[in-house]
Write a structure and sequence with these properties.
alpha+beta; about 30% helix
């Protein structure tokens, strides 16, 4: 009889580390299951990391996009701003302090609609666009054409060649000359003084230097109260900063006739007469006023 006792059941071998694969020659090839599992895990982890990395880049790009847009908007806002003209300002001075590329001419070009046909006629409180071109209206174009037409007519007008003082006189008697013609400085829109200043107290009588016709009489912005006379030889005489006017537009005047009283209206530092001689009624067509009067035989 077989011996009594417990028989142990043979344990089945666990293929936890390898699996036998029969080859054609009967040999077995062991494949490491754990290694394959690890490789698969590593591959999955690498792919997950790549996806996460791409996601992070996308998130950062999305986060930075609004910031970049905000910076562009801020830069654009900083580049274009509005400046309010103050007492004592000129386009040249503003262009310098505000770092306007192109100087006072660019500033005037961008704000021609607001300033008008004369860049010297700016006044406190006027709003100027800095760094952004203002729209040019059709009326500006018309004004430009009118100015060109006036210049052509003035150039074609016959000019007398008097060599004596007959018919011409000083704009004000017994006055000393202050700021001369063509003196350079940032206080003037054109970069230089377009006329000559006669130092006289407020209320001094001002005279027409020759016979002609008043083309304008009234407020002239930075020039204050002004009178502009078209002389018989085609030139124009301008009187600025007057305290009062004695003539009106369209009125004929004779040599020596009172046109107004001196003062300190407009953009000035004190009472005086700003006197110009121009080839047209417009700003920027100035010539040396003292040389003009001397050419007429007037002792200056």
């Amino acid at each position: 009889m077989p011996a009594k006792g417990k028989h142990r059941r043979p344990k089945s071998q666990r293929f936890t580390r390898s699996i036998a694969v029969a080859g054609t020659g009967g040999a077995a090839l062991a494949l490491p299951l754990l290694g394959a599992t690890g490789a698969h895990a590593a591959t999955s982890q690498s792919a997950a990391d790549s996806v996460a990395s791409v996601s992070n880049v996308a998130n950062k790009a999305a986060e930075s996009a609004p910031a970049a847009a905000d910076k562009k908007a801020e830069a654009k806002k900083a580049a274009a701003k509005t400046y309010s003209v103050r007492a004592g300002d000129s386009l040249s001075k503003i262009a310098g302090t505000q770092n306007v590329s192109g100087g006072w001419k660019k500033l005037y070009e961008d704000n021609r609609k607001a300033i008008g046909g004369d860049p010297a006629l700016i006044h406190p409180g006027l709003k100027l666009s800095i760094g952004k071109a203002a729209a040019t209206s059709s009326s500006d174009s018309g004004a430009s054409k009118t100015t060109q037409s006036s210049a052509k007519k003035a150039a074609a007008a016959p000019k007398a060649a008097e060599a004596s003082a007959a018919g011409f006189t000083l704009p004000v008697a017994g006055a000393g000359v202050g700021t001369p013609y063509k003196m350079s400085g940032s206080m003037w829109s054109s970069g230089y003084h377009t006329g000559v200043d006669f130092v006289v107290p407020t209320g001094t009588s001002l005279k027409s230097v020759g016979a002609g016709t008043v083309v304008s009489a009234g407020w002239g912005g930075a020039y204050g109260n002004q009178v502009v006379i078209q002389l018989e030889d085609g030139h124009y005489a301008q009187y600025a900063h007057l305290s009062s006017l004695s003539v009106s537009a369209g009125q004929a005047v004779t040599e020596g006739q009172q046109v107004g009283l001196s003062g300190a209206t407009g953009n000035v530092t004190g009472p005086h007469l700003h006197f110009e001689i121009r080839t047209t009624p417009d700003y920027g067509s100035d010539v040396d006023p003292l040389a003009y009067l001397r050419g007429k035989g007037v002792s200056v």
